[in-house]
Specification:
- The structure holds three protein chains of three kinds.
- By secondary structure, chain A is an alpha/beta fold.
- Chain A is built from nine helices and ten strands.
- The longest helix of chain A has 17 residues, at 191-207.
- Chain A is globular.
- By secondary structure, chain B is mainly α.
- Chain B folds into three domains: 1-40, no CATH class; 46-89; 109-311, MetI-like fold (Orthogonal Bundle), CATH 1.10.3720.
- Chain B has helices at residues 7-10, 14-38, 66-79, 97-109, 120-151, 153-167, 175-182, 186-210, 214-222, 228-262, 269-279, 283-311, and strands at residues 46-51, 63-65, 85-89.
- In chain C, strands 2-1-3-10-4-11 form a six-stranded mixed β-sheet, with helices on both faces. Chain C has a five-stranded mixed β-sheet with strand order 7-6-8-5-9, with helices on both faces.
- By secondary structure, chain C is α/β, with parallel strands linked by helices.
- Chain C folds into two domains: 9-113 and 214-331, Periplasmic binding protein-like II (D-Maltodextrin-Binding Protein, domain 2, 3-Layer(aba) Sandwich); 117-209, D-Maltodextrin-Binding Protein, domain 2.
- In chain C, α6 crosses α15.
- Classes of the chains: A alpha/beta, B mainly alpha, C alpha/beta.
- Chains B and C meet through β2, α5, α7 and α11 of B and α1, α3, α5, α9 and α12 of C.
- The structure holds adenosine-5'-triphosphate and magnesium ion.
- Magnesium ion is lined by residues 70-71 of chain A.
- Magnesium ion binds next to α2 of chain A.
Amino acid sequence: MDALPSYLDQSEAVRARFARIRQREVILEVRGLHKRYQSAQGETEALRDINFKVRRREFVCVIGPSGCGKSTLIRILAGLESHSAGDVLLDDKPVSGPGRDRGMVFQGYSLFPWLTVKKNVMFGPEISGFSHDSAEREARLWLDVVGLSKFADAYPHELSGGMRQRVAIARALVNQPRILLMDEPFGALDAQTRAKMQTHLLEIWRNLDITILFITHDLDEAIYLADRVLVLKAHPGEVQEVIEVPVPRPRLPGQFSSPEFRATKDRLEALIHPAEEDGDLSPALAEDSALQQHMIRFTDVADNVE
Amino acid sequence: MSLGFPAAIAHLPESRQRALLAVGSFLLPILVWCMISYLPFLWHPKVMVEEPGGVGYFQAGMLIDHADFAEQARQMREQGLALPSGIPANPIYLPAPHLVAKAFYTGFTTPPQGRDGVWLHESLWHSIQIIFWGFVISSLFGVPLGILGGTYTVLGRLQEPFIEFFRYLPAPAFGALAVAVLGIYDGPKIAIIVIGTFFQQVLVIANTTRKLEITLIEAARTLGTRGARLITKVVLPGILPDLYRDQRILLGWAWTYLIVAELIGTSSGITWYITQQARYQHFENVYAAIIIIGIIGFGSDLLLARLGRRLFPWDRTQERK
Amino acid sequence: MTKSKTSSAMKRWLARALLPIAAAACSFAAQAAQPLKIGYSDWPGWVAWQVAIEKDWFKAAGVDVKFEWFDYSASMDAFAAGKIDAVTMTNGDALVTGSGGAKSVMLMLTDYSNGNDMIVAKPGIKSLAELKGKKVALEQGLVEHLLLLNGLKKAGLKESDVKLVNVKTNETPQTLTAADISAIGAWQPVSGEAMKAVPGSKPIYTSADEPGLIYDVLAANPASVKARRDEWIKVLKVWDKVVAYINDPKTQPDAVKIMAGKSGVSPAEYLPLLKGTKLLSLEEGKKVYVKGSGFDSLYGSTKTVNEFNVAAGVYKKAENVDAYLDPSFTNAK
Ligand SMILES: Nc1ncnc2c1ncn2[C@@H]1O[C@H](COP(=O)(O)OP(=O)(O)OP(=O)(O)O)[C@@H](O)[C@H]1O
Ligand SMILES: [Mg+2]
């Protein structure tokens, strides 16, 4: 097995690209963000001192173990959740509450079941006062972008999971947001559909003036899509590292086995699934071992399936 | 997944099978009723006197317990008097199907007695109007309150304890009060239906509203929806199919209050017919009237269910189970 | 397009549904000022008014009345709520309704129960005297209770000489089948059911044995009595025609047909109920509406019921009986 390069090594082209990105204006800035939840079990510190910037047309992925606060973070950015301290600035202005300048795609199906595909996409423009005709024109355009023109008059329940998420993307993009927030949008899809959706999303991103903050717990997905990966750790949720992905663009599925890709993935693995340290279990691991201890055998000892 | 259809009808298309079973679900109880009514060896705990014979208090057509009849017959035999005769019969409260069918027919074809009398269908129509208005008025207030209470936690917490309390007060108890306030005609009757329906309605609809997928509301908010438009554009259409189903169930609920509602104020509607016929022990008429109510209630629900499937093509739970 | 069509059809349908209700509301508003409103219910002495209604005799008498058909207790509720001017009820119930605040004046007597109320005893028991020490089931505080006390007194017994079991009148037929119950008190048709339930059981004391124990009356709101005296007198005049029509063998079948129609039963079924009721013409009523202490006087009967009601705890304080009684309408020329 060949020795992998360091994930920090960047080719000339990649380094130049990152330099160019750094020249662009900052769309989203998060400064000293804290989030605490009060609940019956006491206080949970979901996020602690989160700081990062996202620049125009950058693709940033957020990754981390379950319960590390990824959804909390993106919901705060979307304005669906309040934060306990810190600032969220969009184009240098603090955000309060949800708004059309931030589009959101949820993991679960969030399409309005009572509206056809086209009407779902028209929802945003109509709410913001577009005439029916121009809203419809916009909707058709964006349905074309996600390749679902033929399904304009279908209801969401008649579509496959992947198609529904494409509609959700079109519905968010039609508002022409400054940033598209996506919370594990492909988490519920099967591997094949998921791969297709990733390629499709990259295609859209390449052709539009759109900045994307994308949450996932799938390492391959993060590396495949992102310029930079924000790695969170749990209990409390803190930024562990921000990784500049050294895999050159345009990204192709063939790159999954490239050395840069594997090196990055190794690094992410190490960050997210650290080797067990003696005696000092992280809370997440403590939870896992508690689960194992609780498993009761319901079968005869002699009747061992293994 | 439950087990499939029995082999006898398994080869038929599913819709036919379902129709057959639906018919069967009505035919079976009717069959049992027929057997009990027409097979003299099944049940028939009474004897209907045909000839009183020597028994002083017997009259033709009287229903006597088997044992008493036998005892009287024994006494007559001992005293050498004429023996009574009779045939097995069911108690007065279980008329045979054909009598009920006949009552059903004559009920509708008998012209009203007297000048201020009404046809049976007019009585029914009157009852239906009471239900209709009671339900409409209840819904006019109950549906918006339910939706608001389900949407805004504060409002829900403000109204629900009182409504929970009120819901346990029996609607019929408000009869005399309703008459005092609303007069003796349809007002108090409608009021009883409203009282009986409204409080359930608010709670049921608030619950339905709370069950709406929160993601839908959040999605709408990220698309720029705010304030009242969240309710009109998202909550309302989102719960509409369930709301419709709730309303169907609540309408059935309103029907159950009809009988108490119509007992107050002037006598009218189908209740008058039922109570009066029961008072004079004309149980075949009572059964006929009860069956009519069943047909109307069940029929309108079937229609509404069918309509629901048309109205909410996206909602698969409207489909038949 | 289709939408507008359905919505206009809907509107038309709504309008049609709305109409009778709106009409009822309007007619109510109009009536509040005009005709005398009388509530009546299903008892032969009161259904008798139906004859006058059907024959338009009130119009002929030049008085505007509107009869409203109720369940008995609903009719008293409506009267208590001030929604009708007069109601048909027993003299005892007039006191009970009045004890709650809705005072009334008994304008006239319509009838008395003449056998419809009865004490039914098991086979072998032939008189009230034989009930001594035995159990009698009836609904306490109602007419049958009063009937029993009245009979016991005549038989030289006291209430404490029998054991009273309190049951709903409707449940007395089943109760009579119980081994330890010797007799029940109920009115027709429940008492008839009791006799069918226990073959051979017989009435041993009925309202026919004490005519006037309970009188049925037409009682009116005192304010209306004062303000519309002449109209009420005209109403009473019609009553004589009604009684004559029902009692005349030539017209009786027609009368029974009208009454049975109102009650929803066949004339043949209705006739026995009518026979158990003694309708009182105004002349007969006059003879009863005189001061006295026996049951042949409305004064005496009402006074007895008053005492009974207090004793039975129906109300706490005795009613002022004289305020309810005013024979001047019955006596008016
Ligand atoms: N409404 C809430 N009230 C209290 N605690 C909450 C609430 N929402 C989230 N939390 C807690 O905050 C922490 C972060 O949750 P969050 O849902 O953001 O995690 P996540 O990274 O999105 O996890 P996953 O990968 O499973 O989606 C968890 O410990 C969770 O229990
Ligand atoms: Mg999450």
